[in-house]
Design a protein that fits this description.
This protein is mainly alpha-helical. It is 76% helix and 2% strand.
Length: 261
């Protein structure tokens, strides 16, 4: 979403406003009847998962080919939801997104509101699906409910991906179906396969607490680094092929379009 504030038209501003107000309403609704447990274990979990989530969000990679963003920030955020429930998970996701966008990156207000709001709504939906399918948030034990874990991950991925694609579609005046195929089709498949990772992180925290977070966080960032290197190689190869195609078409205009295909 390049230069989103400058390109923001009325439909886009209205859409972002709805997302922001919807997120605020969802947080208020989730807070009703919630009883905080201010134990050191809960505080340690929130601080550790916030730190991992913020590091992952700041280390997100924009995909040159599709224009979408690759990030593993959803893993600690959904893990917090599995451990603590909807309200803390939504607060944590909002805090991570707001800190990254407003405090560190100093993004325009429209990006801050949208990215914070869609993360809060995504976690709220994921938490609802998780509990509807029999998942029970707990800091004392973690019983793997695979349908609940996968369902929560898929719903989070779909909502956040569709929200971003629709915002880009409004900002760029680009058809939604084409924007979705270019931006989200590939990343959704990755996120679906990654849905067990938040459950594993939740289990490791229940079992080993902070050591469990480090036990999974380090390999995750190593895998991310390998993925980024492979991605950059792929992007370099595509750029080289584009230059070769342009050179061929410049020499022989009759091949225009054929070489690109």
């Amino acid at each position: 979403m390049e230069d989103l504030q400058g390109k923001a038209a009325r439909p886009l501003v209205f859409y972002v406003t709805v997302v922001g107000l919807g997120a605020a309403a969802a947080v208020v609704f989730a807070a009703r009847g919630y009883e905080w447990e201010w134990s050191s274990r809960v505080i340690n979990a929130l601080v550790a998962l916030f730190a991992v989530g913020l590091a992952a969000e700041l280390g997100s990679v924009r995909l040159h080919v599709s224009g979408s963003t690759f990030s593993i920030a959803f893993i600690p955020i959904l893990a917090a939801t599995f451990l603590l429930g909807a309200f803390p998970g939504m607060l944590l996701s909002g805090a991570v997104a707001f800190s990254a966008e407003a405090v560190v990156r100093n993004k325009p207000w429209i990006k801050v509101v949208f990215n914070t709001g869609k993360e809060v709504l995504g976690v709220g939906l994921a938490a609802s699906v998780y509990q509807a399918l029999g998942g029970e948030p707990s800091m004392e034990r973690f019983d793997l409910n695979l349908p609940a874990v996968v369902g929560a991950g898929i719903c989070y991925t779909l909502l956040t991906s569709i929200a971003v694609v629709h915002a880009v579609s409004l900002a760029e005046r680009f058809p939604f179906n084409k924007a979705f195929s270019q931006m989200a089709a590939g990343s959704i498949l990755y996120d679906v396969f990654a849905t067990p990772a938040p459950a594993l992180l939740a289990y490791l925290y229940v079992r080993f607490e902070l050591a469990g977070v480090a036990l999974l966080a380090v390999p995750l960032f190593i895998v991310r680094h390998i993925y980024v290197q492979n991605l950059r190689l792929e992007q370099s190869s595509r750029d080289l092929l584009d230059l070769m195609v342009k050179a061929i078409e410049a020499r022989d205009p009759y091949t225009c379009g054929h070489s690109q295909r």
